[in-house]
Design a protein that fits this description.
Length: about 525
């Protein structure tokens, strides 16, 4: 068999990459029709050894319509007046090559990358030849990743730093095995944000590039400290512009949108318009994209189209407990008559005091209907996951039906961090959101929620602890699977559940980055992470 050089292999990969407008699992998602998207080309393919890059007029999109900005106009753009050149260097420094007087182009050697490689002239100004020390060699040499920056500029013969009218940097980290790292920002460090930081830190192919916080007391605190793990060298910031920085691939948006839905939507729209992908538990209508109301979906879809970005929304309940887990269990069932997902939970453990009292209504009068228990709210939050299950089963939901029961507290209880809940006020409720198929409830989402374990003793309780999730498939066999989770440093069953919600969206990031622009359906997102979350020893 013919032995091919690494340079030939890399050149072939890049050629296929540019021809298809994508590179492996990474696509030029901001300007997919233009080679200006070079800055989003898979760096492993691009710089592993040798590859030829066209530098024709398509590059003008990188710097605007002015042909004097960027790498344009072929062979005649050379000489002392403004030669083309590409500077390639590690983030620590290094200068790009200086173009020759006759209009040919040179590739900059840079520090560490290509330092021992050759510099070659371009072919009549139409192509640049990228050569040098490969990223694979760099990784194999010391076993760690490196930051690499690609930039291009139009300038004068005086040197690379002069007249930098068009500089477009792209920074990526190459991890173990020469694989690109996906740069991730976690926005919010609450119940889902903390485990999201831990999930990103543990994921082989993700790099935590920043954390955004609203609490001034958290600004400057290391992300690891906020997430109850070892320091990570990433300080939290209140600067939301970090989420739209060009080097960021994905944002984990964990901000609670219940109290500020318009502001939260505007923040996510800005991120998507910038070309950065988003995963989030915060927007329930997006859990089932086909049924999302236009007022919610249209701005998101428009933003995805403008930025070439994607968004995936999911959680635990509603979320994976209600959609992908039931669907998996149907695959081992027969003669199914009902699919029921349950959450049984004491909300004294839920670290959201305002939501517990204001949205959920605990401690409120029995004759009032809290926002969470309004029919339209239950349909908005749990209706989407009912429809996801229906999509997976390939059945049509005729209608959604809602049932609600409430029980009063029989004694006054005190909850740390929340205060007193008085006797006679709302202490427990039970609801069902039913997906009616063929005239009967086939898909059911049920909640039994208490603020005190002794309230509503006639309703089902967890076998142990103060919370559980369960899925029951009525059929052959009668199958019930219960899910209990605990997370070190987080409170009770709520901590374990929130961690699974964070893990679901964080582990979906590679699929979301690789997807076509738009809102992703839960059934379009991979259900496994291969070995990316296996702890390395």
């Amino acid at each position: 068999m013919e032995q091919r050089s690494t340079a030939d292999i890399a050149a072939d990969r890049l050629g296929a990459c540019l021809a298809d407008d994508h590179c492996g699992q990474r696509r030029p998602y901001r300007q997919p029709a233009s080679l200006a998207a070079l800055k989003f080309v898979e760096v492993e393919s691009l710089f592993q050894a040798g590859a030829e890059l066209p530098t024709d007029g398509n590059f003008k999109d990188a710097c605007g319509p002015d042909p004097d900005h960027g790498l344009v106009e072929g062979a005649d753009r050379g000489g002392a007046g403004g030669e083309r050149r590409v500077g390639l260097a590690k983030d620590m420094g290094g200068e790009g090559g200086v173009g020759a007087e006759d209009g040919t182009d040179l590739i900059g050697s840079g520090i560490g990358l290509g330092h021992d490689g050759r510099e070659l002239n371009g072919r009549s100004g139409q192509w640049l030849q990228v050569l040098g020390r490969s990223l694979q060699q760099m990784v194999d040499g010391d076993g760690v990743g490196h930051d690499v920056r690609l930039s291009w500029t139009a300038g004068s013969a005086a040197g690379f730093q002069s007249d930098m009218r068009c500089t477009t940097p792209y920074s990526t980290t190459v991890g173990l095995g020469g694989k690109n790292m996906t740069k991730v920002v976690v926005w919010g460090t609450g119940n889902v944000g903390r485990p999201a930081i831990r999930a990103v830190a543990a994921h082989r192919d993700l790099e935590l590039a920043g954390v955004i916080v609203a609490d001034p007391a958290k600004v400057g605190v290391d992300a690891g400290t906020l997430a109850n793990i070892a320091p990570m060298g990433v300080a939290a910031t209140a600067d939301t512009a970090l989420a739209t920085a060009p080097e960021i691939d994905a944002v984990v948006y964990t901000v609670n949108a219940d109290f500020r839905p318009v502001e939260a939507q505007n923040e996510v729209v800005a991120v998507l318009e910038s070309g950065t992908n988003v995963v989030t538990p915060s927007f329930y209508p997006l859990y089932h994209p086909p049924s999302a109301p236009a007022a919610v979906a249209d701005p998101i879809v428009t933003a995805c189209g403008a930025g070439g970005s994607s968004i995936f929304a999911s959680g635990i309940d509603p979320g994976w407990i209600c959609d992908v887990l039931p669907l998996f269990l149907t695959s081992v069932s027969a003669d199914i008559t009902e699919i029921r997902s349950q959450e049984i939970f004491n909300y004294a453990l839920y670290d959201q005091p305002e939501a517990v009292r204001t949205l959920i209504g605990f401690g409120g009068p029995m004759d009032a209907t809290p926002p969470m228990l309004l029919d339209f709210a239950l349909e908005m939050v749990w209706g989407p996951v009912v429809r996801v299950v229906a999509d997976g089963l390939r059945v049509e939901v005729d209608e959604l039906r809602v049932e609600v029961e409430k029980r009063p507290l029989e004694r006054t209880v005190h909850v740390d961090g929340m205060g007193a809940f008085e006797e006679g006020t709302l202490g427990a409720f039970r609801f069902e959101v039913q997906g009616i198929v063929g005239g009967r409830p086939l898909i059911v989402m049920e909640h039994i929620t208490r603020i005190d374990d002794d309230c509503a003793p006639e309703w089902r309780r967890p076998h142990r602890g103060q919370g559980l999730h369960a899925v029951t498939i009525s059929g052959r066999p009668e199958l019930t699977v219960e899910v209990h989770g605990s997370e070190h440093g987080e409170p009770g069953a709520a901590g374990g559940g929130n961690a699974t919600a964070a893990n679901r969206i964080v582990n979906a990031i590679p699929d979301v980055v690789a997807a076509e622009a738009g809102i992703l359906h839960p059934l379009d997102v991979g259900r496994g992470v291969t070995d990316a979350q296996i702890r390395r020893v």
